[in-house]
Amino acid sequence: MKLTYFLILAVFVGCAPRELPHPALSPQEVVHINFLALQQNDSPELDHGIEIAWNFASPTNKENTGPIERFNIMVHNENFRPLINCRHFEIRTHFQEKSEAEFLVLIEDSEGEVHSYMVSLSLQKYPPYDDCWMIDAVIPMRLPSKDGPRVAFFTSFNYWPAPFL
After folding, report:
1. Helix (H) and strand (E) counts for the chain?
2. Does some domain include residue 77?
3. DSSP for 97-109?
4. Domain holding 58: CATH number?
5. Nearest to 86 by CA among 141, 39, 32, 155
């Protein structure tokens, strides 16, 4: 009964079930859904992937980046443009506590350049998103040069050595 109601609700609001936050999704699945949506941004229509990313933005994230029109402009700026229609992405590292998670995601943009992003998520506590993992921030990170010294990313949770590429 609940699944039927969810599917009807998803169709009613114009979103497929994997395009909306749901308690059954793990933080890694949320990151994967978002990066896949941005990789296929203009399918089935222009900026559809950005709409999906907006759906998974936490209420705090939306307060800082919204409304959706402003969010769309932000995703098209030079810091986040590599995410749109990227060739490949890889969720490399993660750290998870009870209600917070972080992932390092490497992407190869449409020009073949590699970029990295730190994705922070939190488990929501209030309706309509209680028990749903949602994205609080996507932060562009600098990668080490292939010839340069190894550097480290420091996050609020942990120390992660940067990968050699």
Report:
1. 5, 6
2. yes
3. -SSEEEEEEEEE-
4. 3.10.450.50
5. 39
Q: Which residue has the tokens 């009964």?
A: 1
How far is the C-alpha of 136 from the C-alpha of 138, rounded, in Å?
7
Residue 132 belongs to domain spanning? 17-143+152-161
In this predicted model, what pLDDT tens digit does every residue of 101-116 receive, in sequence order? 999 999 999 999 999 9
The three-state secondary structure class of 83 is helix
CA atoms of 91 and 114, how far apart (whole Å): 13
Which stretches of the chain score pLDDT less than 50? 1-14, 148-165
Cα–Cα distance for residue pair 98/153, rounded to 1 Å: 22
The answer as to whether 8 is a domain residue is: no
Q: Is 36 within 8 Å of 53 (Cβ atoms)?
A: no
Q: Report the C-alpha gap between 10 and 55 in whole angstroms.
A: 12
Q: Is residue 4 part of a domain?
A: no
Number of domains making up the chain = 1
